[in-house]
Amino acid sequence: MKTKIIKIDPSNVCESSLIEAAEIIKNGGLVIFPTETVYGLGADGTSAEAATKIYFAKGRPSDNPLIIHIEDPRDASKFTYTNETYFRLAEKFMPGPLTVVLPAKDNVPKETRASLPTVAVRCPSNPIAKTLIRLSGVPIAAPSANLSGSPSPTKASHVIDDMDGRVDMIIDGGDSEFGLESTIVKVEDNGTLTLLRPGKVTVDDLLTVCPVVKIASAVTDQLAENEVVLSPGMKYRHYAPKSPVYLIEAEAEKAFNYIAERSASSYVAALCYEEDIELLKIKAPNVHIYKFGAENDELLQAHLLFDILRDADKHTFDEIYAPLPRKEGVGLALYNRMIRAAAYHIIRM
Ligand code: AMP
Ligand code: MG
Q1: Pocket test for ligand 1, best of 69, 101, 180, 200 (most atoms within 8 A of CB)
Q2: Burial level of 258, CB count in 10 A (0-12/13-18/19+)?
Q3: For residue range 182-230, what is the model confidence (pLDDT) as tens digits?
Q4: Which ligand 1 atom is the nearest neighbour of the CA of 142?
Q5: Of 215, 267, 270, which Cα lies nearest the Cα of 247?
Q6: Ligand 1 pocket member 233 (CB < 6 A)
Q7: Does position 143 have pLDDT exceeding 80, yes or no?
Q8: 331 Cβ partners below 8 Å, 6+ apart?
Q9: Percentage of the chain surpassing pLDDT 70?
Q10: Domains in the chain, start-ordered, CATH in brackets?
């Protein structure tokens, strides 16, 4: 398939530039579009055939459901059984990087929700995404626009690498603002929340709306064999670079001594906080260094992570080392992605 690539400035979106993309969605085709989290691979969320095309284009297992993207938070009631907790979340965090899992209505095809009785809805804030949804006149089902198993795309070049020739159109809207996928919460029948995937909307943010937020164990811990997952995406390895990744929990000095030792006989890469780079260069001059923002700048780290993991795949590192993120605030989202990239390997010293 020939993929048409168009470029749009998200700070200056004119409707006419998105009419062709909207027509593709209406006609059951596939359009990759930018959001504030990562790029999405979109199709008509009310069409079973369109959902099937998404799974095929990504090589995604069909038991891993899609998120449907709406333009107005109130539209969730057309496709799900909304409740008071949903509207409190919507009031505070929508449009924005929060996905809410609710009981699905019959008009959401089972292909979109992987036969689950629930469906995940999100209302993105990116002006290109919003305009595309509005012009399409349907909710847009969209997972991240990467080939299954590679990191979510945060730049148009990532999307083109993975998906050129597999979709009808790619909209290049520049780099994703946040760079990690949305926070996903499930609203339980009693109105409490379960965090299924951490993101920019943090647990503390959620607690301002709902007094009970349970964190699903798979957010931080490896699933036990045969454990039932609350969110199907949790059981896939995801975000794993070709080279083994190890997360180190230690003071910089100690960590760098270890990395230096390893780099004497191996080709090693390290993600390194800005303030520690000079020390790492002195201790381990052979190491390929990825600048990972300042230690306290988790938003920048979130923005950089997937691009670094993709770049690492272009090299043939024997080992990749990175600092273990903290589990608080946005750190929890980094922890959740990095622990998977590292296949749960943590070195503590
Ligand atoms: P992606 O769009 O690639 O970030 O993937 C969306 C993720 O949302 C999936 O991997 C699922 O884990 C999660 N998800 C979507 N729908 C549901 C649902 N109905 N219940 C629980 N999790 C869901
Ligand atoms: Mg994904």
Answers
A1: 101
A2: middle
A3: 999 999 989 899 999 999 999 999 999 999 999 999 999 988 777 777 7
A4: 2
A5: 270
A6: yes
A7: yes
A8: 298, 325
A9: 98
A10: 4-219 (3.90.870.10), 245-348 (3.40.50.11030)
